[in-house]
Amino acid sequence: MKHWRLVSYDIREPKRLRKVAKIMEGFGERIQYSVFRIYSTDRELEKLRWKLAKVTEKEDDVFYLTLCAKCASGAHTQEKKSAWPEAPKTLKIL
């Protein structure tokens, strides 16, 4: 079952920061500079955690938060309400 996840990070070194951002862009949508929202299964989340663990160091921080559907629907920014649909549209690459 897929859930919305909020992932934020604080990476101390610019080269690692770029690598983490590139990995995150493959999994979700950037909502702030170092905050992403992803819609994933538990298995996909573990894959993300594994990939990030390969490029981060002990001095870096990565925070994962799984949101229930009600919490995700109430998420908003200061300027506008963020649309966190129950299930985002999926694209098939042929």
TrEMBL record:
Keywords: Antiviral defense, Endonuclease, Hydrolase, Magnesium, Metal-binding, Nuclease. SUPFAM superfamilies: TTP0101/SSO1404-like. Gene3D superfamilies: 3.30.70.240. Mg(2+) binds at D10. Pfam families: CRISPR_Cas2. Its EC number is 3.1.-.-. It comes from the Bacteria. Its cofactor is Mg(2+). It is an enzyme of class 3 (hydrolase). The keyword Metal-binding applies. One of its GO terms (biological process) is defense response to virus. One of its GO terms (molecular function) is metal ion binding. Homodimer, forms a heterotetramer with a Cas1 homodimer. Belongs to the CRISPR-associated endoribonuclease Cas2 protein family. CRISPR (clustered regularly interspaced short palindromic repeat), is an adaptive immune system that provides protection against mobile genetic elements (viruses, transposable elements and conjugative plasmids). CRISPR clusters contain sequences complementary to antecedent mobile elements and target invading nucleic acids. CRISPR clusters are transcribed and processed into CRISPR RNA (crRNA). Functions as a ssRNA-specific endoribonuclease. Involved in the integration of spacer DNA into the CRISPR cassette. This is CRISPR-associated endoribonuclease Cas2.
